[in-house]
Amino acid sequence: MKNIVNQHIIILNEIENIPLELASTLHNFFNNGGDLVLIPSENINLQSYNNFLQKLQIGTMQPKVTNEHLITSINFSHPINTNVFEKKITNFQYPKSAFFYPTNINNSSAIISFDNGQPFIASTQQQLSSFYCVASPLNKATTNFSQTPLIVPILYNIAKNSFNVGQL
Question: Which residues contact 86 (CB under 8 A, 6 or more apart)?
Fold first, then answer.
């Protein structure tokens, strides 16, 4: 865990449980300007996730919604989507997710959303750090989002924004 402090961004990819020691280390990392991306697993320990989110003062996750939903809305004005699209697209083949975890993230804005208005990927800013939350796992068994052309620019811009470099 010593190497965590030397990173710009940490991606928690499909872990089921967030142990207290990891939560504490990530809390310190986040408070010192590190960015976090949370991608839940299929069967999360909801209490450990919520303990972690509350420690960060970010918000909460709700129990899994097992209805399939389409990912239909792109927030073109979100900084992550800046310079990604030449024009606003309205008719593309919508990716879908078999289930998702609704979130209540404080002061968040959706990067992309489901057809029911819930965010699929949301972000929030706290002083020096950014927090990104994906509503479902990104594996092929759960969603086909990773097969769309949206995933590369979104994840690239999340990573790029976490790397603070001075002006040349």
Answer: none
* Contact (CB, 8 A) for 37 and 9: yes
Instruction: Give CA–CA dist 61/16, Å, rounded.
Output: 13
* Cα–Cα distance list, 89 to 54, 72, 84, 96, 114 (Å): 36, 11, 11, 17, 16
Region label for 57, one of left (φ > 0), alpha (ψ between -120 and 50) or beta (otherwise): left
Q: Of all residues in the chain, what percent are helix, strand and coil, respectively (each to 5)? A: 25, 30, 45
Q: In sequence order, what are the residues at sequence separation of 6 or more whose Cβ sits closer than 8 angstroms to the Cβ of residue 2?
A: none
For 92-123, the pLDDT digits (tens) are 778 999 999 999 999 999 999 999 999 999 99
The pTM score is: 0.91
CB 98, CB 105: distance < 8 Å: no
Bridge partners, residue 114, by sequence: 71
Rounded Cα gap, residues 75 and 77, in angstroms: 5
The runs of H, that is alpha helices, within 61-164 are 151-162
User: ∠ CA(106), CA(111), CA(115), 5° rounding?
Assistant: 100
